[in-house]
Amino acid sequence: LEEDAIEALEEALALAARSGVAELEAAEEARARLKVLLEARLKEEAERTRATIALEAAMEQADVELLESAIGAARAAGVEASLVAAAETRAEVVAAERAAAEEAAEAARREAEERARVQAAASERLAAATDGESMDELAAALEQAAAAGLTGHAVWMAERALQNLEEAAARREAEDDAAARALEGAMEEGH
Asked: How far apart are the C-alpha atoms of 78 and 33, rounded to whole Å?
């Protein structure tokens, strides 16, 4: 509409100049109106150019809010529809990537919490079994600790405790065997 008005004013002023009436008050008003319309068109073109540049720059970023803001400004400035559509697609891709990254981070957080819970349970069981006298419980606690990825002093202490229990059990078994042989020997002599 403004383009039509600009064209009509330019034609009317050219006709006025050819007719020799370019100095009339109406011609002066027409020139003033043409100047206002040309300035407005230049301002719109500058805003469209600025919005286009801003939209293209925003499309290079992975920021949905920036893209949405630039898309709104581009629409308002009359930026080419295909560029606006491309920016909308980019915004959808960035939003999907962000959602996937947030989902992956949440999954990693839950996995870390579960790993910490499993390690805490294994550590607690290992501490209790290390202080106990059951080789089977201590061996099971060491297996649980290994499965949970526990390392360090507590595991080393539990391994030493298991070794001590195994050695003590081997000594008791050897003592029991020796006592049984001595008893059998004494019984054979007594017959």
From this structure: 23
Q: At what angle do helices 153-189 and 135-147 cross, to 10 degrees?
A: 150
- Let me know: does 116 contact 149? Beta carbons within 8 Å: no
Rounded CA gap, 164 and 153, in Å? 16
Tell me the Cα Rg of the chain. Answer: 44
User: Do the beta carbons of residue 16 and residue 27 sit within 8 Å?
Assistant: yes
What residue type is assigned to position 23 of the chain? E
CA dihedral 142, 143, 147, 148 (to 10 degrees): -30
Please name the residue that has the structure tokens 């419980």. 137
List per-residue pLDDT tens for the chain, 191 residues long.
688 898 998 998 898 888 888 778 888 899 899 999 999 999 999 999 999 999 999 999 999 999 999 999 999 999 999 999 999 999 999 999 999 999 999 999 999 999 999 999 999 999 999 999 999 999 999 999 999 999 999 999 999 999 999 999 999 999 999 999 999 888 888 76
- Concatenating the DSSP letter of every residue in 84-131 gives HHHHHHHHHHHHHHHHHHHHHHHHHHHHHHHHHHHHHHHHHHHHHHHH
Number of H helices, E strands in the chain: 6, 0
